[in-house]
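Incident review: delayed structure delivery

Summary: a single-chain prediction request sat in the queue longer than the usual turnaround. Root cause was a stuck worker, restarted by the on-call engineer. No data loss occurred. The affected request and its eventual output are reproduced below so the record is complete for anyone auditing the incident later.

Affected input:
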Amino acid sequence: MHLHVESRSGPYGDREPLAFQLGGQRIDVVDIVDRWIAQDHSYYKISASDGGTYILRYSPPAREWELTLFQAPAS
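Output delivered after worker restart:
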């Protein structure tokens, strides 16, 4: 699923997510739990303002973000 993501330059020269739109709702990144940076894609495991955990993938050549995983908050 392609996403509109607000991002900034990260400490490693990568694009780092700050917030994204999902279903018309703005979801803020609370914490970047982990990151995997490669030449063709970067992955970010994040904790979000809705309590969910997400993995977002960024493709620098295409300048596109994708949602690759969503985990709902524990009840």
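Verification: The beta strands are 2-9, 15-22, 25-37, 42-48, 53-59, 64-71.
Action items: add queue-age alerting; document worker restart procedure.
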